Amino acid sequence: MKNFRKVIQMLTGRFDNSEQFHSLSEEEQQTFPFAIHNNTILNGLIVNRPKEFDGVFLHEESYYTLNNKEKFKSDIFLFSTDESGDVVLKSITVPKELINTKFNELNEIDFTVLSVSDKFVPLHYKEHEGTFIGESHSMFTKKTAFILKQELSDEALVIKEEMFNGNKRVFGFDRPIIYKRILSKN
C-alpha cells in the first residue's frame, strides 16, 4: 500500500517539460513538443462507487504545443494493486460526452458509466530504488499498436507514448518527454 500511495503522490499535480524543451536546439524544437500534464485525483466526483472499491481514478489533461499549434487531450486512468502488490494502471473508457473534457468542466460521474478499456493492456509498475517503471504494449486494431513506457520518481515523470499504424509511427517522438513538477507559488 505504501508503493500505491507513493505512485499516486508522484503522478498528482501539474507538470511540464520546459527544462527539457529549452535544452533542445531550435531545430530539435521543431519536431518535439512543449508539453504540460495536469493530473488530478477524480474519486471525489465519482458517485455510486462500490463500498469495497479501493482504486484511485486519475484525470489527466495533456497539452502539447508543436510548431505553435496546441493539441489537447484528456484521459481517465484507474490505479489499483495486483495480487503481488504491484501498482497497476488501467485506461478507462468514458462516455462520449466526457471525452477530452477538462477537469474544471466535470460534474459528478456515475461509477457505472466508466469501464476498463479492453484494448489497453494494463501497465504494471515495478519499483527499483525509489523509481517506478512500467511498460504496456497494446493492439488497438489489427494494425494499430500503442506503446506506453513510464518511469516515475520524485524528480520527474519520464513518459514515452508511441502509436504505430503498421510500421509507421503516427504519434510519438524519438525520445521520451521528461515532465518536472511545476511548483505553485503561494
UniProtKB/TrEMBL annotation:
Protein name: Uncharacterized protein
Domain of life where this protein originates: Bacteria
